[in-house]
Design brief:
This protein has twelve helices and 13 strands. By secondary structure, it is an alpha/beta fold. The structure holds guanosine-5'-triphosphate (GTP) and magnesium ion. Magnesium ion (MG) binds next to helix 7.
Length: 413
């Protein structure tokens, strides 16, 4: 049974539940300014849910918000049935889809943070009971309470241990990053709502076979692949997708990975253009929000409106009008991919530094590196070495400064 606020997205909740392996037998929308602080659902709605449960064979109620521990507990009592919230469902999917060691640690951290808040709620509640006993003259701790304290302490210890281990993997990643920077290849990070088609697009552009599926949060681990435009090499990174109300515990746990990925020269925001206007607007907004949260709001960005194979001609014109800067593509049919390559190239070329170099023949390594980095370049053989005019990625430029001609010409004999 799915329940959510008015103007909410029960279709999306149903999708999330489907991905988590739960079938929905009924749904209910509550219209009120604020959810009930104690039970999430108001009196009337509560009765309606009870009735609906009786009619169907529901064995769990899912709410499309993050519930306060108290709301969840009271609602479970009132309905005599397990209640889960949106956050728990998303955490569950992440736990199921995490494959890498780091991904598993990140998800475990997020889940513990979520559970710890719940234990604390329970604990405060019991503490009050304990306080009553103290007033009654029995000044000892209740057994339930000390058990929960122990659980809490264990959870805290585990959280610190996880944080430490994640910091350690972060250090390894920083080294990898430094190596990539040394290679100097400009990189593009894919960002976007879950199921927008990021992995499909990565596969099309880089000729890879990253997993693609019609389910939410299929990709969790970042993947980087290289690709070529006009003979020049670039890198593209695919990471976890975003969603409305992405649990803050997950944003925290994944922030290091995300910040690093989004540190790319260009963030390619991929959106599913086949959804209705209102939904598209909200999905774009949700991505903006997460990017802002991880400090990537100001990164150079390009919008790719994907799945236009599902969009009628008239709507395509509307989209051109609404998003004149965006590139319309279909990762499925390959439509618009050349335009996308051009747009990516134009953005990245603007970040290149034109250089005129004299590279001695003995520096064969630097020469081949230049060919890889700069793609097309002008070269002229002279007695002193090769004179090269090329546009070099800003990050790699310092390595070649020692060859710079600064307007001087090699001796011509
Ligand atoms: N019709 C159509 N379907 C597409 C297109 N691009 C991707 N899809 C489908 O959309 C679904 C999701 O694609 P993915 O590439 O896995 O999406 P994603 O953004 O990587 O999703 P997550 O990793 O779950 O965040 C798959 O079923 C794809 O086949 C497209 O251009 N047109
Ligand atoms: Mg993916």
């Amino acid at each position: 049974m799915a329940a959510g606020p008015d103007g909410g997205h029960l279709d999306e909740l149903t999708e999330l539940l489907r991905t988590a392996g739960v079938a929905v037998v009924g749904e209910l929308v509550q219209r009120r300014a604020e959810p009930d602080p104690d039970r999430y659902l108001g009196k009337g709605k509560l009765e309606e849910v009870r009735e609906a449960i009786k009619r169907s064979d529901a064995n769990i109620v899912a709410c499309d918000d993050e519930l306060k521990p108290r709301q969840e507990r009271n609602l479970e009592q009132a309905l005599d049935m397990p209640v889960i919230d949106r956050t728990a469902i998303i955490l569950d999917i992440f736990a199921d889809h995490a494959h890498s060691a780091e991904g598993k640690l990140q998800v475990e951290l997020a889940q513990l943070e979520y559970n710890l808040a719940r234990m604390r709620g329970l604990w405060t509640h019991l503490e009050r009971l304990g306080a009553g006993r103290i007033a009654g003259g029995i000044g000892t701790r209740g057994p339930g309470e000390s058990q929960i304290e122990t659980d809490r302490r264990l959870a805290r210890d585990r959280i610190s241990a996880l944080r430490r281990r994640l910091r350690a993997t972060k250090a390894t990643r920083a080294t990898m990053r430094a190596e990539r920077d040394r290679a100097g290849l400009p990189s593009v990070a894919l960002a976007g709502y879950t199921n927008a088609g990021k992995s499909t697009l990565l596969n099309e552009l880089t000729g890879s076979e990253v997993g693609v599926r019609d389910r939410l949060f299929h990709t969790l681990d970042p993947t980087t692949r290289s690709f070529e435009i006009s003979g020049r090499q670039y890198l593209m990174t695919d990471t976890v997708g975003f969603i409305r109300k992405l649990p803050h515990q997950l944003v925290d746990a994944f922030s290091a990975t995300l910040e690093e990925a989004m540190g790319a020269e260009l963030v390619l925001h991929v959106a599913d253009a086949s959804v209705p206007e209102g939904e598209l607007h909200e999905m774009l907004g949700a991505v903006d929000e997460v990017l802002a949260e991880i400090g990537a709001a100001e990164r150079p960005r390009l919008l790719a409106l994907n799945k236009v194979d599902l969009v009628a001609a008239e709507r395509k014109r509307e989209l051109t009008f609404r998003f004149p800067e965006a590139v319309q593509v279909s990762a499925a049919t390959g439509d618009g991919l050349d335009g996308l390559r051009e747009a990516i190239e134009a953005r990245l070329l603007a970040m290149l530094r034109p250089m005129e170099l004299l590279v001695p023949y003995a520096e064969g390594g630097s020469l081949s590196e230049l060919h890889e980095l700069a793609g097309e370049l002008e070269r002229e053989d002279t007695a002193d070495g090769v004179v090269i005019r090329a546009r070099v990625p800003a990050a790699a430029a310092p390595r070649f400064e020692r060859f710079e001609l600064n307007g001087a010409r090699p001796s011509e004999d």
